[in-house]
């Protein structure tokens, strides 16, 4: 028989002195933390995607520079970072994530299919792009148009395709935001919310670690072109956004849950290791030059080791302390 585990936050005694309405408001506020995080992130990404459409349109009308549109793309990519792998509790988000970012792209599918689209010519629109492979519908496709060496000096000649891809990203972002408009945890018990928070953190941490491991390859044989955002040389920028978000997710969800379960020492230790992990992220924006030097490669091993510690602590300590089992599943692409 399943037993219901009720988690009493540390402020529970103080809540006893509140009126019924105040107590309900406080409970609802606490209950919706995980949903609020996902909803806010999706709204931020939707706004960034719309800004990318606006900047792309202005560039194609000679009202904005290429660098301004490239920055708008980077802003969208950074806004997407907190949502990478964040599909727990939302099946629609899982389906949308691939068309927003096709990664990993081990066979340069995006580059090959984008080149083919340009060769075909014709009328491009958000709807027509939506009928193509997911490899040409998202942020990676836009990055190819804005940053790939083969396009340098002739980006403006691809404006029709650029506007269509940007509009497709905006449409997907709006769908994603709508998918989080309803709280999937509205009627679930405290233990299930904590379980999903742990699953979400584990899934995103796993995705982040894979994004480090793939371009690292083997010592002496790095694969920098397997990094996300390698064309724009912003791999570290996006990685930093990922890890800072993971720290915030932990602080807002699992840390108070651990403290409520009298696991203050573990909560504090994990909190300290998130700081260590962030501090160990190398400076700079790109990965290629970093991986090509012994010192730079070692710095990425250090970062990976720091994240591995957190991964093991979540699996071996936090999960059991909260009465849960957590798994780490990699996401792979063609």
TrEMBL record:
InterPro entries: Imelysin-like, Imelysin-like_IPPA, Imelysin_sf. Residues 43-308 form the Imelysin-like domain. Pfam families: Peptidase_M75. It is found in: Cell envelope. This is Imelysin-like domain-containing protein. Keywords: Signal. Its main location: other. The keyword DNA-binding does not apply. One of its GO terms (cellular component) is cell envelope.
